Amino acid sequence: MKRKAVIIGGGPAGLAAAVSLKDNGIEDVLILERGSSLGGILTQCIHNGFGLHTFKEELTGPEYAARFIEMAKERNVEALLNTMVVDISHDKVITCMSKDKGIFTIEAESVILAMGCRERPRGALNTPGYRPAGIYSAGTAQRFVNIEGKMPGKEVVILGSGDIGLIMARRMTLEGAKVKAVAEIMPYSGGLKRNIVQCLDDFGIPLKLSTTVVDIKGKDRVESVTLAKVDDKMTPIPGTEEVIPCDTLLLSCGLLPENELSDKMGVKLSPVTGGPIVDESLNTNIPGVFACGNVLHVHDLVDYVSEEATLAGKFAAEYIKEGERPINGPEFKIETGKGVRYTVPVTVHPDRAPELTTVRFRVGNVYKDPEICVYMGDKCVLRRKKQICAPGEMEQVIIKKADLKNLKDGEKIVVCLENVL
Question: Lesser CB count within 10 Å: N end or C end of the chain?
């Protein structure tokens, strides 16, 4: 089976990419989704806060997904549900399996990677203590409460202050549970400021920074967890232990892009984000293989996922129509300066770049009153003041093609923070 464009994943990124491909003139578009429905994780995110950028109104997760599912249906986007992709070769041959079709292959002219991300499991955290019932990832607890109508527990401690953990602190409270504390090993929260206010402060739930779980007690079911303060090397400080009786521990300790398939097919991955290294067209090192959404890097807003995926669909459509465009000029790397952990994209070609290129990044600490700067060679082409930059909120800058064309061989593009200690 040969197809023009195949999208791996039917969540918000996959749906937006499919719609964009159709809108850019590609009729042969196929989504491969391992779940039984489209929409991805949004189907269990029943809280509001989605769509303010994309649709200019506040929607719940299922409502946001439904908008894109309807847009895909209107464009006759084909989707194979309950279909697991088990392998993608370097030359874009996709091996799939499903209950109905068994094992089959698809030869794709272009592939868009939109597999999303998964939660960091307990095994990756090295949490000491027993292994009783009552320990869940925050996303699993969210599915239990919002989809299956089951309560994970009544007295809850949450480890990690990622957005899912913060939202579940509120959700569990609204369902009658007592959330006793949210512990965060870092000296700052990993979630959006609005979620700290709306999910913790509004319900009087304490956020304990520079704190982690050092012990879990309970034979059959969690009976208590022991929290302790940590020093600047993340080592627990003796004498700061606090035992909190509870029957449930939720883990919200970060998200990992789902890139096992990408790695197997030879896509180069970033050691910082865990996602593919891409250029200004969201193309990986394999021509015709694009990446977008949380498989590329973890986003804080689904609106940005859709925006990025729309671009991926546009660039994939150009590739299908024109083939691989030759590089007629130099390639410049976007480097990280003070305070910046990573950028997406990582490289840019001035001759192929659009008039405006969005560069998204995250900072490595909390900085007050910083200036976000972009240098091209010795020249600062962008300087913007901010009240605060925090790791939980993605930042972005726009770089102009006109500035890129002024770069000379050997010069660098650097994104950094200034006016910080």
Answer: C
